[in-house]
């Protein structure tokens, strides 16, 4: 059993084993995806039309998830872009002002609980949202998301500090002075301390070749929920092995009607 901090993410500069140069190979993941039968819907279980919200990672945006979005529709799901725009803002504001709205719309349109797929920081947003809105979430799949503690390449912290200064400049008193750090005590940070409901299917996909974050901090508490693939951190959005795992885990979740649908007597499929 790998012994790492379980709760509140902490910030540590990466050890020498995390080399950012590995990420230059993410194009290989992209090319392998296009050559894989999995991307065209072969060899994976069909979806049931339920909603899947894909959340981009740090400094990412919805267009980066276009391939996954198209693939999810191809295999029978109703994919949604996150609607958060550029993921370089206060996580608490992104959840409350954008992600919650996307999830509520997906629930209203499908009548069922929603699946969340989050890449890197997007997975941390997904975990926090699932804790805060348990009645609306069926499953959470994280792709290289350091939910146990932020141990990352030093350049990542440098970029994060630039983002933090911009957040404080733009939002002022709307955010805490410690926003975008492990010291922040907002609802986003507090939710990362708390487990998701046992009824939710939890999946953590990671790669030991990760050149951005320490893969050991991307694991779920239950070893049976952890799935290792080969490839880069950035390339997890295009990783053929990850796609195959995602298809099988989504099928296992089998979302029921949302609480709102049950209250309203919804007959959505």
Describe the overall structure.
The N terminus is likely disordered. The strands form two sheets. Strands 3-2-4-5-7-8 form a six-stranded parallel beta sheet. The protein has a two-stranded parallel ribbon with strand order 1-6. The protein is built from eight helices and eight strands; from the N terminus they run E-H-E-H-E-H-E-H-E-E-H-H-E-E-H-H. It is an alpha/beta fold. It has a single domain, classed as 3-Layer(aba) Sandwich (Rossmann fold).
Strand order of the largest sheet: 3-2-4-5-7-8
CATH H-tier superfamily: Alpha/Beta hydrolase fold, catalytic domain
Please state the overall shape, judged from the principal axes of the Cα atoms. Answer: globular
Number of E-state strands: 8
What CATH calls the topology is Rossmann fold
Number of individual domains: 1
Measured between the Cα atoms of the first and last residue, the distance is 41 Å
Q: Find the structural class using helix and strand composition.
A: alpha/beta
Give the SSE layout.
Blueprint: E1 11-13, H1 26-34, E2 51-55, H2 66-74, E3 78-81, H3 91-110, E4 114-119, H4 121-132, E5 137-143, E6 150-152, H5 154-171, H6 187-192, E7 201-206, E8 226-228, H7 240-253, H8 259-264
Parallel strand pairs: 1-6, 2-3, 2-4, 4-5, 5-7, 7-8
At a glance:
35% of the residues lie in helices and 14% in strands. The protein contains eight helices and eight strands; from the N terminus they run E-H-E-H-E-H-E-H-E-E-H-H-E-E-H-H.
Spell out the key features of this protein.
alpha/beta, Rossmann fold, 6-stranded parallel β-sheet, 8 helices, globular, disordered N terminus
């Amino acid at each position: 059993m790998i012994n790492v901090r379980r709760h509140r993410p902490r910030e540590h500069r990466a050890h020498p084993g995390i080399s950012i140069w590995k990420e230059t190979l993410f194009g290989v993941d992209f090319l392998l995806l296009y050559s894989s039968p999995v991307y065209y819907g072969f060899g994976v279980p069909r979806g049931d039309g339920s909603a899947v919200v894909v959340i981009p990672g740090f400094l990412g945006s919805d267009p980066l998830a276009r391939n996954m979005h198209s693939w999810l529709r191809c295999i029978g799901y109703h994919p949604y872009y996150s609607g958060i725009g550029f993921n370089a803002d206060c996580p608490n504001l992104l959840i409350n002002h954008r992600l919650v709205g996307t999830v509520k719309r997906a629930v209203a349109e499908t009548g069922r609980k929603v699946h969340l797929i989050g890449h890197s920081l997007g997975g941390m947003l997904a975990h926090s949202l699932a804790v805060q809105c348990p009645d609306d979430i069926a499953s959470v799949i994280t792709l290289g998301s350091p939910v146990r503690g932020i141990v990352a390449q030093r350049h990542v912290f440098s970029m994060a500090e630039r983002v933090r200064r911009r957040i404080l400049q733009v939002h002022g008193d709307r955010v805490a002075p410690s926003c975008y750090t492990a010291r922040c005590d907002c609802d986003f940070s507090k939710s990362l301390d708390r487990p998701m409901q046992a009824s939710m299917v939890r999946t953590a996909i990671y790669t030991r070749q990760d050149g951005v974050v320490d893969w050991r901090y991307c694991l779920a508490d239950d070893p049976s929920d952890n799935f290792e693939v080969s490839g880069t951190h950035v390339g997890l959005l295009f990783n053929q092995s990850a796609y195959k795992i995602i298809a099988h885990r989504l099928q296992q979740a089998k979302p029921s009607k949302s609480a709102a649908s049950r209250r309203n007597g919804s007959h959505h499929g």
